[in-house]
Amino acid sequence: MAERSFAKEVQKLKQGEGETFTGEGILAITKALLENGVGYVGGYQGSPISHLMDVLADAQEILGELGVHFEASASEATATAMLAASVHYPIRGAVTFKSVVGTNVASDALSNLASGGVTGGALIIVGEDYGEGSSIMQERTYAFAMKSQVWMLDPRPNLPSIVKAVGDGFELSELSNTPVMLQVGIRSCHVHGHFEASDNKRPEMTVSEALENPKRKLDRIVLPPATYIHEAEKLTKRKPAAETFIVEKGINERFGNAAGKVGLILQGGTYNTVVRALNRLGLADLYGDTEIDMLVLNCVYPLVDSQILDFCAGKDAVLIIEEGHPNYIEQQVAHMLYQSGKTVKLEGKGKLPMGGEYTGQVMVEGLGAFLSEHAPDLLPVAKVATNEEPVAIPDLSKTLPARPPGFCTGCPERPIFAATKLVEEELGAHHISSDIGCHLFSIMPPFDIGATTMGYGLGPASAAAFHNENKKGRRAISFVGDGGFWHNGLTSSVGNAVFNKSDNVIVIVDNFYSSATGGQDILSSRAVNKTKQTQNSIVDAVKGMGVKWVRQIDRTYDVTKMRDTLKEALTTEEEGPKVIVASSECMLNKQRRVKPELAKAAKEGKRVVRPRFGVDEDVCTGDHACMRLSGCPSLSVKDTGDPLRDDPVAAIDQSCVGCGNCGEVADAAVLCPSFYQAEIVTNPTERETRRAARSRRIISWLQRRRDAKRVVFA
Amino acid sequence: MNMQTKPLIARRSPGPDGEKIITLAALAVGGQGGGVLTNWIVDVAEASGYRAQSTSVAGVAQRTGATIYYVEMCRDTGRMPVFSLSPAIGDVDILMASELMEGGRAILRGFVTPGRTTMIASTHRIPAVSEKIAPGDGRANGREVIEAMGIAADHVVAFDMETVAKQAGSVISSSLLGALAGSGALPFPRESYEEVIRKSGRGVEASLRAFGAAYEIATGVSPAPAPEAEAVAPVPVLHVPEKLRAQWAALEARLATLPAEVREMAALGLKKVVDYQDMAYGADYLGMVEKAVAVDAAPFTMSEAAAKYCARALCYDDILRVADIKTRAARFARVKDEVLVKDDQILMLTEYFHPRFEELATTMPRGLGRWMQSRKGLEAWYGRHFDKGRRVRTDSLSGFVLLWLVSSLRPLRRRLLRHDSEMRHVSAWFDTVLQTAASDRALATELLANYRLIKGYSDTHARGLSKFAKVMGARDLLAGRPDAADWMRRLRTAALDDVEGTKLDGALATVRSFAA
After folding, report:
1. How crowded is the C-beta side of A522, counted as CA atoms within 13 Å?
2. What percent of chain A has pLDDT over 90?
3. What mean pLDDT comes out for the span B289-299?
4. Looking at the structure, do residues A265 and A354 belong to the same domain, yes or no?
5. What is residue A6's predicted lDDT score, i.e. its pLDDT?
6. What is the span of the domain harbouring residue A50?
7. E-strand spans in A25-168?
């Protein structure tokens, strides 16, 4: 079950000609796929296209009605390999994943797919996670397009343009027998907007029909000598075909006054920011009408030499607006200009920053610098001279606490890392390899655990070199999530450790979902999923791989057991990798599942127990040791209002879900007896009520008796 | 200081019909419902004849971290404006922050511009992890942010919107929307917002209540809720049984002889101490305060510190104390209140204990306790068989009675090993204080305040004790210096700042270097 349900929104996918579609970018892309007669869709979740996968999953019924096959792929490589269905058959296929990490995983399949080429349109929708809020390394997907010779679209970030790009992409792919990447930025994926819908189309050939009529063409298979022919074909046939299409279809757009002496060449994705910057400089109105000549590249690869040279003709200076590093577009344009002996001044990086996100401010400054130098007359006087006194705003940089993402309230991964800290307190610091997933938040305070993260499912693999000659010496600890485990970890990490007789410790953090990407089901999910086979055991898989020492922990909140198991793994004399599968359900998903059930049961008069934790503030001494082993959002500090006390005490707020971590940590680390668990019983049984009333009577008698003999200040 | 010295004046220009783009950024902590808020705003705008666009960097990779939502809107003139997808420095008309420090972050990031930005911020705090894990009080200074808002923003609407929402049984997105509507920063009438809330379908009544309350505070019709510090739990009251009234009166009489500056703190301390043990213990406490007063002079700052820290020193945390607190009637009432138990519901209460051999031995009479401590074999045996967590159900008779029995050992406390060691420790400390007071009262005051370092249980307590010893040890190095008190305070602050004590060791090294 995914984090967000699109069950309601996907009904919009049924809209037809004449209707206005309203919604988020990802939903619009899905609708565009259906309007363009897609035959099959696959992908792997990850921001920003997680929700696209969720939309598709929720839309399975609608897809099925149209004869469209959908798969949640095991990895980005699987997804890309799936496009093989378009190699011999005239079926349009689309896959989606996060870039650049997903494209890395997919690159083997991508190379093969690109080499043989396609018959049916093959679209790879890459969600670009670049700039602020990105959780990955900052690299460009562009390099993949160049090296594999696949085409890359980067449409203007509004719904009509994105929707149009989907159709253009399929057509471009078919005409040039080349897979096409459609790049959408994180904000475009979540932008709310409108576009005019068209009717959905059934695929011209379904995958079932293809299966019934198998086809193969030797020259599409990547094997010598065809591979050499492919290379030549890419250069002599496919690329020229693509260039012709780009020009004839007007994929790239021209705005402004073509006679302008200066011009801008920009990626489609940056258009809105550029227009806003021009508007703020007094050079464009709010609808984008401007005198500044602009060539908007909705297709960023390949570039069409004639189009670029034509744009540059007669200009004094041209600015390339290209986000990210290296400046591939600028280099290509420079090459074109040089080769054709042009003298137009080329600007790009330099006027704009070498790297980093091109935010509004960056764009204003970059355009301002370019125009001040090459077209100073264009800039209105009011923009360069001011009498306004700048206001001095206090510097808050020392005051504000950083707020990095962390584990959610009640997260079952928190106790795993609390236990790891406790083990380290006892056995000393260890080398710890981390992995991608929510569990990576362990590198943040209060845990500060983990030294590297090398890729999804590669946590244990990245500890592979750490082989201790001393059998009794320290072992490396590595973490991998259940998502990473099934994505790549089973073979690359666990299999590798077994084969190479590693002695290290591997902790598989199993929370029943691919949680970091929004709670999608995976092979070992415990839930029953209508369209997927779930409930496959991680322990069995690991044993099947040849691991001898495996421990399953079914309740990660048992910090004592978690700690002892980890300690045993680090000290046992048994050889080979030590694998601990630490399982408890992702609390975010659990709450979403359980809360409505409990509310319903309570309404129906059934007995329902709601647990939560509390702190006795008189017992708490305000040392915050508990928080140094937790970081739970619901466990915080508050003032007591008691003038005798200086420091704030621990307090647990209403958001507590009663996971038990506080109490277990206090117990395992022998912290303090301030924590209590309160269980609130709704609709208690009669016997229970009677018994509670009786206990209460006796207890309050005892309390009164004691209070009668002493002073009480409360 | 962030001087705005950009050479270019970058201001949005309006459309041909005078229509303007309004930009609105909302900074939130992941999980606060910023998505709901932005959807509402877009709906209000679109229902009022505006075109609108919202974007976000979704919360998927942002759990509990800082998040930004962004909305642009413009009066519909038939053409689609080119809306931007993210807020830009100096280009935000309305900045909403659903937590005080996030408001500060907006200012730091340049999203709040003088003469332009209406700032709508909730002043409540959600402490970040770094603020919570300091052994002392690591919380950031909220006042600085509130002051900065006044300077940076054109118009400020700031109050505790979390409390307003809670009081209405709703969540902060509703009260934020109310504050936005009430601020008048958007050209839409109150009814259009309420209509959108009504259409949203879930928790409508509560949302409308929170919206209305916040709207009225923002428009100045009703006052903002009191800051959290003033709205703490009810003030404790003293119950003195008939038989003890006379003794209590005697103590009160002694209290009255103390200088006025000290009396308030000493009264609190006295109540705490007699509540902790008995009347005689209260007399001991007053004796300590009187000693401090004797070597002090107006304004009796040192004596006030003595009144505070002696009470804390005497009321050390032992098993008896914990059992006492956990079995009190007032505590049961407070828990019920805190976890929201209705009358037809039952509350089950489980306490988490982990008594180690050490606690057992120190809760024994002096002689027996010492003997136990000397028997390593006994400790190991206990460790093997009994050293584990215990869960005690205090709502059940058996669990309650167990703790009640432990708490009734109170009259015997003075004979226990723990009391013996605590009192030695206290008197050594207090003697040092009195000695120091003869020559340097400011330093003596700081020495008193050093008791703040002793807290926690088991390992944490041991760590506190060792920091205390280290800091107190610097007294001899500092005595006689004119800035001795200042240095002593700095050492204590360093000790409270980090767990490992590296900052303290660094500060101590400095002290040693100039003492040498």
Report:
1. 27
2. 89
3. 96
4. yes
5. 87
6. 15-248
7. 40-43, 69-72, 93-99, 122-128, 151-153
Q: Cα–Cα distance between A505 and A579 in angstroms, integer?
A: 6
Percentage helix, strand, coil for chain B under 3-state DSSP, each rounded to 5: 55, 10, 30
d(CA B492, CA B470): 10
Cα A692 to Cα B341: distance, rounded to the nearest angstrom: 14
**B476 falls within a domain:** no
Q: Are strands A20-24 and A192-196 parallel, antiparallel or unpaired?
A: antiparallel
For chain B, say whether A240 makes contact (Cβ under 8 Å).
Answer: no
| B516 CA: distance to closest CA in chain A (Å) | 33
Q: Are A401 and B130 in contact (CB under 8 A)?
A: yes
For B148-204, the pLDDT digits (tens) are 999 999 999 999 999 999 999 999 999 999 999 999 999 999 999 999 999 988 889
Q: Which two tokens stand for residue A222?
A: 């990547």
Contact call for B2 and A688, based on CB within 8 A: no
Instruction: Name the residue with tokens 């700690």.
Output: A563
Q: Which of A393, A678, A703 sits opposite B152 (nearest CB)?
A: A393
How far apart are alpha carbons A537 and A554 in whole angstroms?
A: 12
B285 and B347 share one domain:
no
Domain end call among B230, B248, B277: B230
Q: Are residues A130 and A264 in the same domain?
A: no
Alpha carbon distance A174, A92 (integer Å): 9
Which structure tokens are listed for A159?
């719904």
pLDDT digits (tens, 9 = 90+) for B247-264: 999 999 999 999 999 999
Q: What is the dihedral of CA A585, A590, A593, A594, to 10 degrees?
A: 110
Among partner residues A132, A279, A383, which is closest to B12 by beta-carbon distance?
A279
**Residue showing tokens 């002090």:** B296
Nearest CB partner across the interface for B57, out of A186, A517, A647: A186
CA distance A264 to A255: 10
Q: Quick check: A429 contacting B, CB < 8 Å?
A: no
Q: Could you read off the pLDDT of B144-162 as tens digits, one per residue?
A: 999 999 999 999 999 999 9
- Written as one letter, the residue type at B159 is F
Q: Give the side-chain half-sphere CA count within 13 A for A463.
A: 33
B407-448 pLDDT, tens per residue? 999 999 999 999 999 999 999 999 999 999 999 999 999 999
pLDDT at A51: 85
| Token representation of residue A250 | 């007007």
Q: How many CB atoms lie within 10 A of CB B401?
A: 15
pLDDT at B2 (0 to 100): 41
Average pLDDT, chain A: 95
What H or E segment, with its residue span, contains residue B96? strand B94-97
What sections of B220-300 are H helices per DSSP? 245-256, 260-276, 279-294
Mean pLDDT of B480-497: 94
Assess whether A498 and A556 both reside in one domain. yes
Tens-place pLDDT, residues A677-710: 999 999 999 999 999 999 999 999 999 999 998 9
Q: Do B1 and A394 touch (CB under 8 A)?
A: yes
Number of domains present in the structure of chain A: 4
Round to whole Å and give the CA distance between B61 and A165.
Answer: 27
Structure tokens at A556: 């990660």
CB-CB neighbors (< 8 A) of A413 in chain B: none
Check CB contact under 8 Å for B151 and A394.
yes
Q: Which two tokens stand for residue B21?
A: 């783009």
User: What single letter denotes the amino acid at residue A660?
Assistant: G
C-alpha B126/C-alpha A618 separation (Å) is: 22
Give the pLDDT band (50/70/90) at residue B61.
Answer: very low
Asked which of B282, B315, B348 is the last residue of a domain, the reply is: B315
List the single residue in B132, B326, B401 with the smallest CB-CB distance to A627.
B132
Distance from CA of A654 to the nearest CA of B (A): 8
Place of tokens 């099959």: A40
From CA A263, how far away is CA B316, in angstroms rounded?
A: 76
